[in-house]
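Sat 14:20. Reprocessing the chain from the morning session after the first attempt stalled halfway. Input below, unchanged.
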Amino acid sequence: MKKRIMIVGPTQAGKSTLANVLNDSIRSLKKTQDVIYGKNTIDTPGAYIENVYMYKYLIATAQAASHVLMLVDQSRPTEVYPPGFAKSFTCPVIGVITKIDLAPEKANLSIQQLKRIGISEPYFKISLIDNTGVAELKEYLFGKQESSGKK
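Finished this time. C-alpha cells:
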C-alpha cells in the first residue's frame, strides 16, 4: 500500500519544512539536492519542477506516492508549473498554498495558479511559522488520529 505523500514545489516554497511537520521530525533544513524519503513523505528538490527535463522524474517518483502535494508560495507566486500539470499524476493531487502570512494580498493569485495547474478544491492554506492550517491538512491526509498526534 502506498503510504507516502510526495511534496512538489519551487525552491524555498517550504517543502522540507512541511515534510518535517508531516513526518513529526526535525531534520535539518538545507537545500534539497535529491529526493528524500521520510516516514510519511517524499520530499522532492525544487529543481525538479523548475526544469522541464526533470518532470519525468517527478512523474516516476509519484508512482510510490498515495498523494501529491503541489505547493504554491503565496509570497512569491511565480509560475513554475505548466498548465494542467496535475493531470500527469495517477494519484490525487492536492494544492497547498504556503506562507499565507507573508503576502495576504496575493491569495487570489495563488488560487488562480492552482486552477491553471489543474488542481480542484480543496486547497489548503498554511503557515509553517504558526502552523495555521496544518492540522486541517494532516487530518485530510492521515485522518483524525494522526493529526492529533495519536497513532
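Residues 146-151 have pLDDT under 50 and may be disordered.
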